[in-house]
Amino acid sequence: MESTSPQSASAPAFDLAIVTDVGTERPGNEDSKGHLIEHDNTPVFVVADGVGGYEGGEVASAMAVETTLNAFRESPPAWGTSKRLHRALQQANIEIHNRALTVPELRRMATTCTAVAINVDEGMLYAAHVGDCRLYLLRNRRIEQISRDHTVVGERVRMGMISAARGREHPDRSALSRSLGRDLIASIDRITTPLQHNDRLLLCSDGLWSVLEDRDLERLAREGPAEDACRRLIEEANRRGTADNLTAAVFVMHAAGASMARRRGWRERLLELFKRAD
Length: 278
Hints:
The protein is an alpha+beta fold. The protein has eight helices and eleven strands. The protein has a six-stranded antiparallel beta sheet. It is globular, with a radius of gyration of 19 Å.
């Protein structure tokens, strides 16, 4: 388990925890996780899920997390957070691909990977995403999936060929259409969205969301410290008998963010002008 908040004498600006578990049926854990905090105001956290049934899934997911965090840490801040994350995942993809080519026992290894960085001062979320780990935004007792599932079934759901409910039960629901390691260049989604005070993020592997519906995820993650929310999610999924490894990362935005404060300031000034006009 990983849990962190900024070191400050005042109230912490955020709360972050990540928990992974082998689940109820697997002998080993092919999920990997990790995080870093840059300049006390930019937490970065990563979840990867090695492709099950293939040799090296555990190796691939661990490489994805380690390489992504190291590449992000070493990249120039002038690139901007979104570009740094994207380049970091591409670097992870290249290293996994090259390892698979040179080690026969690992020739089919691959992994999903989702990396999230929060600029707390600006109140902005940046993410880079490949595969079927899911990134959710929890706000005002509602939950929204802000990542796309890179699966054959997920694409059919987006095209309206099958319903989301049917997709959850489809026998090929875990067949990936994108992953890290299979090709020299990976197709990576970039996600950017503003955050508000008290927003929560949930980043989880399919071992969690495949057995807990969105309303359950929201209910279990909406309150309390991030670590407690992670524990509740993992325990409930295991209670329901998840057949896969499972990982949950919960981020809680305590700070309002400088950009949101600026937006509020503009609104206040506009209201002041309207009042004067009246």
